[in-house]
Amino acid sequence: MKGLVIANWKMNASLEAVRVFAEKWQHLPALTNVDTVICPPGPYLQAVKSAMAVELGAQDASAHVAGAYTGEVSAEMLRELGCQWAIVGHSERRAYHGESSRAVAEKAMAVMSAGLCPVVCVGETLVDRDQGRHEEVVAEQLKASIAGVSPEPLVVAYEPVWAIGTGVTATAEQADGMHGVIRACLNQVYGSESFGIRVIYGGSVKPENAGELFVCENIDGALVGGASLEAESFWKIAQAANAGSQ
Ligand code: 13P
Known about the structure:
The protein is α/β, with parallel strands linked by helices. The protein contains ten helices and eight strands.
């Protein structure tokens, strides 16, 4: 399966940072066996698109098509700006904006209807893991977050909450194990149609640990936060995915 590496810049960067990133990016060799996506904050989508040869994604999208939803951005608007991808259900949105798995599934459907690929995020908290409930929690969250969502095009991102922005990465064994649980779940829901769904890992992915993650059988790529803000660091992660999926 072709690798997939997605940069989630969260609420970081600036127009100047986009310019600096693009300047460095254009001198780095192109990678053919990995899809490389950047999800900048909405106001910088156009700047990223015009400055560099990467695929473009949004960090969120509305479940609604249009109307009186102040502050929301529809998937169709994102498509018009050149987005082919949209992250939905990131744990930061679930935690700070009270998004339920039901709402995440609605967003995923809206994204798909506009012709974009949803990247549905799931992940357990440290308490869930300490209680030994992590597999059950992620399986339940996943099933609810893809209820009614078709399998094509779809990406699932496993991001354990305790590994996000903490510098603590899940070990390759922990990540691969959970990806196996996610694959089994997808298989239960979609049968053989699940085979094309890429399952990517996120949580303190860096150039130093990317290689060991991408050799794992069930890991098809990464959703990268902090280490995606600098061009060379993100490129090195993409390069590791490029090598891991050959
Ligand atoms: P970090 O790579 O900064 O841990 O963030 C992961 C993440 O949340 C990507 O969506």
